Amino acid sequence: MVLCGPIGLLLLTSVVVGTFADDGKIVNGTTASPGEFPFVVSLRRAKSGHHSCGATLLNSDWVLTAAHCVRGSTPQQLNLQYGSQSLARNASKLVQVAAIHVHPGYEPHDKYVNDIALLQLKDPVVLGTRVQPVRLPEPEQPTLGNSSAVLAGWGLNATGGVVQLQLQKVQLQVFSDVDCSKRHQTQLHSTQICAGVPEGGKGQCSGDSGGPLLLAGSDTQIGIVSWSVKPCARPPYPGVFTEVSAYVNWIVETVGASSPTPSSSLWIGQLIVGRTPPVLSS
Predict the structure, then answer these.
(1) Residue 124 shares a structural domain with residue 250
(2) Is residue 108 one of the residues assigned to a domain?
(3) Known catalytic residue: 177?
(4) Is 115 one of the catalytic residues?
(5) Ranges for the Peptidase S1 domain (predicted)?
(6) I want to staple 114 with a disulfide (CB 3.0 to 4.6 A). Which of 4, 60, 105, 204 is the partner?
């Protein structure tokens, strides 16, 4: 088991045992349409400007990502590029991190259980047509096996490949909990889900960690990229994600305890908790 990112950590720790022939783009994905995923942001190392992990905007002040992307880092070591699907070291839309909230139950030695973290932003981002919050599922909402889902990210196009400069997407299948554990030959946690394709060759890779798995045809985030067996998209092992619905209550509690203003409400299911939906600006 090897994490999908951050990139630097994975390249130091993973053992490359082969590669897939593919045409790039996550692993065998395609370039996202302009504005297709206005909530996806790039988590970067502030000093170098290098992309490290994916993440999603929850509102103007908070970002959702994987715990393994930020554990051991200080807020000053990170920043986020938002409002663009093209990675750029000198991007104009950057925001600093004020605080890192790693789930207290995160345990990398137990199949990366509770691999989820929240980042509180130093300054609020301005919402617009290309900058929007992601929708969270209802608390404890089940993710059904065989559901169609979409993964978005800038991760490597293959093990040993390169970071994609344009945001990529790929359509995947959600596997049932039983099938997921059977394919990985270990009992995964009930707060984890798997997605991939039965034949392999499509899915997450290094640098996609922390990014979203979305219900196909929606802006509802059901998963956070956590880990996968290498080489990337190797059959029969689907990628493993943190199941977002299992943590909605923790997200609400953490955001509520740290946000004194109503601007930090969340989009959960069909409701905007605390305010009306954001007004789109150009």
Answers:
(1) yes
(2) yes
(3) no
(4) yes
(5) 26-256
(6) 105
